[in-house]
Write a structure and sequence with these properties.
This protein has about 300 residues and is mainly α. The protein has one domain (about 85-305): MetI-like (MetI-like fold, Orthogonal Bundle). The chain has helices at about 1-30, 45-50, 60-70, 85-120, 125-140, 145-155, 175-200, 200-210, 215-225, 225-240, 245-250, 255-265, 270-300, 300-305. The protein is globular, with a radius of gyration of 24 Å. The termini are close together.
């Protein structure tokens, strides 16, 4: 187990280094610069700004300086927010995005598992068709359209919840539903198909031949063996939800990391773009590692290997 953990850790470090390098190079190769704007700045001011942020140095020196800062946990200064560093911005905004993501993951689990289970249990019935309709609608409806519809119907027309901000429980429900609806629909459809496929296995036929009731066959025998494809998609899905949806945070005016990433791209704030990208990569690597561990819990054969 220790050797496996070490291998995964080394693999994760290599992935982070590769993402940091590619992001650094792509931003440097992009046309324009971080201080280009519609209002042309005098050349001497641009030269002073580039000297302040070491942009006048060779690219290799900038790269080495950036990696040295990463080794000390420093993502560098922000070009847009002059009084704040990238590390400070991420530390202030990531908890908000993570909280929204955790709530969306919980909603996904609470909604998708019953939908997928009942759709498989009552397959080819009206309940199955209804679950499939709900799942297809959730997958097909973009979150920015769903968010706008929820704001119009629930917040503006009915006046039940807030349409924006992030200050109490009533301001959390609408963005949570908007962010978790599509993942819940997708996971429920995947669970249904996985359960139906598992129900055709020999061990399920044996359980039925012994007189085990159908709901027990699904819950005790088929469900656990159907979780492998679910876990496969939950890794990157959880990482995406934990880092927050850029669109959802923008629609509901949530002060999360996603909104800063959007403004960083438009403002060419190189350190902030690279910082958010690396944080997302680190969460994605960690989520995939957790999924690998869960594989062994679900299927003992994987753990033995």
């Amino acid at each position: 187990m220790i050797s496996v953990l070490l291998k995964r850790f080394v693999h994760g470090v290599i992935v982070l280094w590769a993402v940091a390098t590619l992001t650094f190079l792509l931003l440097r190769l992009a046309p324009g610069g971080p201080f280009d704007s519609e209002r042309k700045l005098p050349p001497e001011i641009i030269a002073n700004l580039e000297a302040k942020y070491h942009l006048n140095e060779p690219v290799l020196e900038q790269y080495v300086r950036y990696l040295a800062g990463l080794a000390h946990g420093d993502f560098g200064p922000s070009y847009k927010y002059l009084d704040r560093g990238v590390t400070e911005i991420i530390a202030d905004t990531l908890p908000t995005s993570a909280l929204l993501g955790i709530l969306a993951v919980l909603l996904t689990m609470v909604v998708s598992f019953p939908l997928g289970f009942f759709a498989a249990y009552y397959r080819e019935s009206t309940i199955d068709r209804l679950c499939l309709f709900i799942g297809t609608l959730g997958i097909s409806l973009p979150n920015f359209i769903l968010g706008a519809l929820l704001i119009w119907a629930v917040a503006l027309q009915l006046g039940w919840l807030q349409a924006g901000r992030w200050d109490d429980w009533s301001s959390v429900i609408l963005p949570m539903v908007t962010l978790g609806a599509a993942p819940a629909a997708y996971v429920s459809a995947l669970l249904r198909s996985s359960l139906i496929e598992t129900l055709g296995e020999d061990f399920v036929r044996t359980a039925r031949a012994k007189g085990v009731r159908e709901h027990s066959v699904l819950a005790r025998h088929a469900l656990r063996n159907s979780l492998i494809p679910i876990l496969t998609v939950l890794g990157p899905l959880t990482a995406t939800l934990l880092t927050g949806s850029f669109v959802v945070e923008y629609v509901f005016a949530i002060p999360g990391m996603g909104r800063f990433f959007i403004t960083a791209v438009t403002d060419r704030d190189y350190p902030l773009i690279m910082g958010v990208t690396l944080v997302y990569t680190a969460i994605l690597v960690s989520a995939n590692f957790a999924v690998d561990l869960l594989y062994g819990w679900v299927d003992p054969r994987i753990r033995t290997e």
